[in-house]
Amino acid sequence: MNDQGRAQARRVAEALRGQALDALYASDLRRAGETAEAIGQTTGLAVHYDPRLREINQGDWQGLLVTEIERRYPDLFRRWQEAPLTVTVPGGESIAQMQERVLAAVEDIARQHPDQRVAIVAHKLPISVIKCRYQGIPLERIWELIPPNAEWEVVEVG
Prior knowledge:
By secondary structure, the chain is mainly alpha-helical. The chain has two domains: 3-56 and 95-145, Rossmann fold (3-Layer(aba) Sandwich), CATH 3.40.50; 58-92, no CATH class. The protein has helices spanning 3-16, 30-43, 66-72, 74-82, 95-112, 124-135; strands at 23-26, 47-49, 118-121. The chain has a three-stranded parallel beta sheet, with helices on one face. Helix 1 packs parallel to helix 2, helix 3 crosses helix 4 (74-82) and helix 5 (95-112) crosses helix 6 (124-135). The protein is globular and about 45 Å long. 25% of the residues are buried.
């Protein structure tokens, strides 16, 4: 995470200071973990890491710049943007597969913390599938629900 990302993490941690959170969960990937640690320091909560909250596995696209992906996989990339539910990147996972693991994590967390307020620090697509599921939004609208970095919102689960 760069300086801008650390500043964003501190801002969201400060914003969550007064939210009366009962638990804090995060993806085990570095950027989410660093953000969760900042939130934990501000709220006094320990971070529980869950790899099921990770971003979608991009397979052969992992680590490539968008321009490289567009050049190497023009048709697949176009479909990914236009109809992402129909695409599985070679060596990666589909949105449906990612959704299944993320929602399993959220449901487990909700069972462990009934009637409690829990913060989940995750990534763009996992957050989008959580919002689709619990706000009754069709998964086809996933791109519309991508949050900005280090933003937070309340989603009722259960």
